[in-house]
Amino acid sequence: MDQNTYLNKTVGEIVKDNYQTAEVFKKFNIDFCCGGKVKIDEACSANNIPIDELTNALVEAENYAGSDTEKKFKDWDPDFLASYIVNVHHKYVRDNIPLLSEFTQKIAHVHGGRHPELIQIAELFQAVSSELQHHMMKEENILFPYIQRLQAAYKNKSSIGPSPFGTVRNPIAMMEMEHDNAGSLLKQIRQLSDNYSLSEDACSTYTVTFKKLDEFENDLHQHIHLENNILFPSAIELEENLTG
What is the pTM of this model? Predict the structure, then answer.
């Protein structure tokens, strides 16, 4: 792809077209999920990155083929993508919160005297776990069922009845705000841990906890990307097509 092609796209649109580029944005510390609505030149300016350096890296990433799943996210119907998010990413969050809650508290108790940042990390993880659990319930009980109704109405060429929240833009705005909050909490954890750098006295639980926190954050980045940059815009477009 020509470098100039990127200049007219937002960060989120680039990752939507090819998830391989997510690694490039991560390398340059550019937020592609919660902050995915900014153009490339704005992202470079905000992070003091030469634009040619970033676009060269993006071109290189485009040369590597991603998995079939990565390529097809943007082509899936919104109702199918919503189900995928629940079955893969929501399940991952629910499966990993208990272990990470236990481990962050354990290493804070054992190592917190020498490494006080671990106490803050444990507190932040409790906050993000509570935020995400309430957030996912709202998506699964309110927003995603409405998106499924939108898709069914579109397929059947029927009308969509009134929703309790007005336009779909309203719950989406709330979900995006909550994404920002969760992303900010995990960013603070990464900063406190110096990008999950291990101390010399790190025990096996300490090591596993940092590895799992890194994995948890990376999964959340893709989770939020799928919603903010693909699912939500598709839902808005569907609703507009149905309501005229």
Answer: 0.81
